[in-house]
Amino acid sequence: AKSNGKNRYQFYDKKMTELAFERTTLESNLRKAIQNEEFEVYFQPKIDARVDKVIGLEALIRWNHPELGLIPPVKFIPFAENIGLIIEIDRWMMREAAAQVLLWKKENIVCGKLSINVSAKQLEDDNYVEFLSQKINDIGIDPKDLEIEITEGLIMKHSLHVTSTLNAIRELGISISVDDFGTGYSSLSYLKRLPIDKLKIDRSFVKDLPHDKDDIAIVKTIIALANNLSLELIAEGVETKEQRDFLLSEGCHNIQGYFYSKPLKVNECREFLLNYM
Ligand code: C2E
Ligand code: CA
Ligand code: CA
Ligand code: CA
């Protein structure tokens, strides 16, 4: 069974490479995917480890390709960004994820804040804030229940336009989290300039906790930074009890990662949420 799985992987990888080679094929495949509803929202729970409660869900996209099967976002998001299709995809995600979370809230299922990943292209789009405020109204979700995750690289690269967009998003009542914190450029000055609510400690600093001395120092420093700037904090990619216990004892109590749950399909996530109430 193992070698079979490996072969399938190689086949899949080869297929993907062929697809990527033929950009027009991938592009038309992606366009069709939107029309044919081949995308699916997965949700990964975020947990307050002090009390073992769900504080939020991160929406993560999956592509169910009719022939190639499940395609992870790293295989198509960068391409979708290049050809500008990411705007449509991210808008679809936002609508779909928010509508689902609202359904759960109507069932009185506690799911906390919904986090959406927003690409640079989306944030540069002049109509994005208008889209957001319209969707919030259409769907009827409370903006206090919404958070966007933006990467540090994006902030540094697009600082001028991004500032006004982020301010407008914040004015809508949506909170803003810096994803992959610590992996972008070294300047921290944007933390002063921009309306940031939360830092997400990147998985690369969590991976070798609590053994790697450098990672220990970096994580402790980020925790102190967040505390001193009154920013919320979460760690991603937490896979082991050791990592969780270390982060909790150092004061980072919000945890996301396989230790609690991998990203889940809608019905799996509902079960998870019910178990955590
Ligand atoms: P990200 O935002 O940093 O998301 C975290 C990634 O780490 C996810 O991969 C998640 O499945 C994975 N992960 C979560 N917990 C663990 C863990 O404990 N261990 C390990 N090894 N991995 C963990 P995924 O779902 O493949 O997404 C990859 C990236 O694709 C995301 O990174 C995000 O940048 C992007 N992405 C996903 N969905 C969307 C979307 O709807 N829109 C945009 N623009 N980007 C998206
Ligand atoms: Ca993210
Ligand atoms: Ca991340
Ligand atoms: Ca990361």
From TrEMBL:
EAL domain residues: 23-277
Its domain of life reads: Bacteria
Q: What is this protein called?
A: Diguanylate cyclase/phosphodiesterase
Q: Which organism is it from?
A: Sulfurimonas denitrificans (strain ATCC 33889 / DSM 1251)
